[in-house]
Design goal:
Strand content: 35-45%
CATH architecture: Ribbon
Radius of gyration: 18 Å
Helix content: 10-25%
Shape: globular
Length: 157
């Protein structure tokens, strides 16, 4: 199954289920990876730095956020179950299917056809918000660890 078929299949499943903190899954469009100027020194969060007035190199979002383009897609978050991990409603997560999930990773998981983003624990998925309980893997339940979250994008305005 190629990545477009995978995303189409999962989006159809998302529309047919309601217990999820994943709003949608998107394919990457590599033609949109336009270069962005990268300043030579980091930007200060306090006082401005007079040395940061020239560009050192060029950066694309793919070169910074995507390690394996063939296996990477984006997921839009809904809800607040991962807010203490810095993941807010409306954020776009970068998910890499080629990384083997390890305990402690933030993963996109499919549980009986429903999608969720959580920390991977030992035989459970852990939210990053005390309002929610862990999701334990139950006998007979279909669990698919789809991919590992490697980054996120957020609009501020």
């Amino acid at each position: 199954m190629n990545i477009i078929e995978f995303i189409t299949s999962y989006n159809l499943k998302l529309r047919s289920h309601f217990i999820s903190n994943v709003e949608n899954i998107y394919a990457r469009d590599i033609s949109l990876g336009e270069p962005i100027p990268l300043f030579n020194s980091p930007v200060q969060a306090g006082f401005p730095s007079p040395a940061a007035d020239y560009i050192q190199s060029i950066l694309t979002t793919d070169s910074y956020l995507v390690k394996n383009p063939i296996a990477t897609f984006f997921v839009k978050v809904k809800g607040d179950s991962m807010i203490d991990a810095g993941i807010n409603q409306g954020d776009i997560l970068i998910v890499d299917r080629s990384i083997d999930p390890k305990i402690g990773n933030i993963v996109l998981a499919e549980l009986d056809g429903d999608f969720t983003v959580k920390y991977l624990g030992n035989q459970r998925l852990m939210p990053a918000n005390s309002k929610y309980k862990p999701i334990f893997f139950l006998e007979g339940q279909t669990v698919n660890l789809v991919g590992v979250v490697t980054g996120l994008m957020r609009k501020l305005i």
